[in-house]
User: Fold this.
Amino acid sequence: MSKQVQQVETIFCHETGDDYLVVVERDGKRLFRAKLGLSETSAGPRPAKFRLKEGSSEEPRQPDEFVELARRAKRLRISEQTSAEGRRDLREMFAGYQLEDKVKTVRTCRYCAGAGRYSPITTETAVKDDTDWICRDCARQELERQLSFSGGGEVTGAAKERLEDLMMEVQDLERIVNLLTGQLDPDLTKFDTISATTDEVDPVRTDSLSLHPGLQDLLEDRFDTLLPVQSLSVEHGLFDGDDQLVVSATATGKTLVGELAGINRVLNGKGTMLFLVPLVALANQKYEDFQDEYGHLVDVSIRVGASRVADEGERFDPNADVIVGTYEGIDHALRTGKEMGDIGTVVIDEVHTLKEEDRGHRLDGLISRLKYTCEQRAKRRDDYGGAQWVYLSATVGNPEQLTEALEATLIEFEERPVPIERHVTFADGQEKVRVENKLVRREFDSESSKGYRGQTIIFTNSRRRCHEISRKLDYSAAPYHAGLDYKRRKEVERKFGDQDLAAVVTTAALAAGVDFPASQVIFDSLAMGIEWLSVQEFHQMLGRAGRPDYHDKGKVYVLVEPETVYHNSMEMTEDEVAFKLLKGEMESVMTHYDEAAAVEETLANITVGGKAAKALNDRMLGEIPTKHAVGKLLEYDFIDGFEPTPLGRVVTEHFLEPGQAFMLIDGIRKDAHPYELVADLELRETEL
Assistant:
């Protein structure tokens, strides 16, 4: 004890029932703990018992030893959490030994004090816990305990760091725990704001353009000047026939770039315009838009699959002035040898689809096959000078590289018309619907300075969940996905446009740009099907929030369920994915090929180009080992020389991978029912 007495720096006293816990420290490290009891004497309160604590045992010592320790100590500290009577008794006791100058009452962490640690805290370092204050280390431990108690599981990585940072910022444990149950405290949910930005671009006056008179008049009636991205495009050769990659945020007007180029060339006799999109829902909307805007100037047709799809039931017209189509719809026409007419302009919307694992190679192949078809047609009838290509995207991480690969001119515009607030909160699957209901009500009850009510798009991961959420919302809402028929989807679009719906609940069908003027986007899930969203997809979807002609700002809410996965193939949990997406950089757009994709595209190129298939492979963005792919096609009996066999033709016309083809062949040989084969095929695609 004598050695310890010589080295004492701080003695801390904290009331525990009728006694006091004493912590003796040197250099910030605890030397030992003890229990001190006081008794009232004629001279005032004095030490009556003093016991050293070691684990659960206590070693009695003489009370005078405590007095000697106090005299040797540099600092005597009394916990603020000690009762007023207890603080008074301790001060009187220390004053009786002329030690009052060393005494100070300090705020300490009650958890540390209870565990025999001296942890002084200040207004800047303390965290509020109910009516008390605790240190930061104990606050972190208590937050983890509360998480486990509430069933939140183990919050990992960036999500845990985010919660801890918020707790230190607001210094209130209860507010963070409430956040974990779906509370919408705006000071806590707000992650960041993507500011509205405007690049300095001199606007091009519409009356300065020399377009076909019909289009010129239409444009001048609608606008005095072009928007910045449109002006940049015009200044860099849009109407000179130059190929362009236009990269600009959602709602900046890049779609009109493609429309102006194509319609003007159609009216000037320079071939048909193809406007290609990834989704049927988007193709249907663009078809109607073209009909409404340009129907008095041009004939418009649509191709989304093997045949024309429209309310009137008309067939696809290859001789129409404008053909709106899905990637697969036009590719099917090429693979089956359909006449495509004299193509003068090709607009590829959402060109970042090139990077998608399942569909990217098909878009890559389509571009190569379509260019080949256009070139062959131009050689035979050189009366319009070849096709102009315009590629559109809001999300490209490598625009310079992609532009070079596409042999185009880059038109990049960084403007965001309105700011977007991004919020993150935590909730389980059932709690999410309650949070969504509150957010939808709050947004629909608000009105922008432009006179529009706030409306919401909720993205989720399945059609079933779309219907579940929309049924549970208090305000008018509707599901919207590819499983609905055309008439039902158009009704939802109309009602949303008329502000008769507070929300639509959708899967990926809306992510690619179906025109819903929403002010708010909610992510019920960060998965689409059984795959986590990519940074590109996430930005594409959140970009639907806020339109310059309707809203003052956009709002995005990411609802995160810690420790959740939606399929056992997912390696990350939703809380990990959330902050990866929020902080992530845009991925590069480039196509990658596995063997199945290489075989599928090579077969399609042989079907369309015959002996030119190698040249078609070579011009694609992704690298295809042509020799190996051709070897596999011969092995599978899909080709005979540079011609598809009857089997190969069926395989390519139905966009089958080799494994799918062999599964169907095997089923046919075993006299399997057609429904059984289709079910097996769907199941295989789901598992992949």
